[in-house]
Amino acid sequence: MKKALKIFLSLLLVAGSIYLVRQSAPRFTYKDQVAVLLYHHISDTDTSNVTITPALFRSQLTFLKKENYHFITLQQFKSFMAGGNVPENAVLVTFDDGYESLYDQAYPVLKELQVPAVNFEITGTLADPRARKLHFLDEQQLRTIATDRDANISCQCHSDSMHDKQNGKPLLTTNIVVDGKQETEEQYKKRVVNDALDCKKKLKKAGEEEVDSYAYPYGYYDARATSLLQSVGYKYGFTVLSEMTTRADDPMQISRITAGSPDITPQVLNRTIQRNVMDFNQDYNYVPLRDTLKDLGGTMTMNKDRTISFYLHGKPYKLDPESGTIETAGKQIPLKHPLLLKSRKAYIHFKDLENVLGVQIAHNPLRNSFFERLTPAKARNNETLTKS
């Protein structure tokens, strides 16, 4: 009996120790970056890939709060982009389009849970918010949201009447055809500028104090469009590219992680954020070429002539360790640091690899792997059309 009691107490002690270890294990945290979440429509009856139920919306927010995420305001986010601090595990909630469900379903939950948010409004819908099957906010609903300081929902621009396409091409980035003629460059510029100003004017009329943020319709944008938006006072542009946002990112190319899809459970959303976190704590010097390329989706081969061939996104590269150059697309790119060969493994300097590939590479601590960033940093070229 005594022996059985001792065994029982021992097992109880071990179990208790395991429990204590689990309880005291630190939660996953990130710093100096923000997870900007994207929602559209909330409904118990409507279904689409951008519609979630009120219950799922509430459960996502409560779960993230429980997991020690901190929801921030748009003003806090803008301060962060300018060099200020945000809490660990910072999250910014955004809604696109300005559907009536924002007022009926999301607004009460956001206010109850004290979660600030951003409403990117298509202001052209205010003239007749019931014109379509899916209703939009009316002027009074928009004003209520915009002026409720306790709720802290900032109303910003999703264009006035640019949320459309002509022949499959987005209006914001296209010289459209009017009366059988393609508009000139000057006509295009005037159309984009006037639309952006109309959006700003209507939002200020609704009670929004500062309108300087713009969510690109359908996620399409280019350097020409962003330059025009900046010329009339827009300082922040929100995309639909799924990544975390850092201070180093171009403020006109702010990424957003989709949260408003019906298959995104609270746990899936949590994992999605964690898998996009970037590790800034390590100063990467040399990295194993084969392993890093594998993380990025590429391959590498050691050739008999001691050169190294590798491929990424179908593009071939040939590295000559002796000359310290990499050949690609008929060009010779010199390495700034010598290639290291150790135990039949090739190590390349991190900055050299970024330079040769022409991409920004980040490291995720949870997966312990490298990945290619979709969002260019401020210093990078963004001349080409970008979309999700």
Automatic annotation (TrEMBL):
Superkingdom as given in the UniProt entry: Bacteria
In its UniProt record, which GO terms are filed under biological process?
A: carbohydrate metabolic process
Please indicate if the UniProt record lists Signal as a keyword.
Answer: yes
Q: Which Gene3D superfamilies match?
A: Glycoside hydrolase/deacetylase (3.20.20.370)
Q: Name one GO molecular function term.
A: hydrolase activity, acting on carbon-nitrogen (but not peptide) bonds
Q: Where is the NodB homology domain?
A: 89-388
| Name of the protein in its database record | Polysaccharide deacetylase
Entry keyword set: Signal
**Name of one Pfam family that matches:** Cu_amine_oxidN1
SUPFAM superfamilies annotated for this entry? Copper amine oxidase, domain N, Glycoside hydrolase/deacetylase
PANTHER family per the record? POLY-BETA-1,6-N-ACETYL-D-GLUCOSAMINE N-DEACETYLASE, PTHR34216
The species this protein belongs to is Paenibacillus chitinolyticus
Does the keyword Signal feature in the UniProt annotation? yes
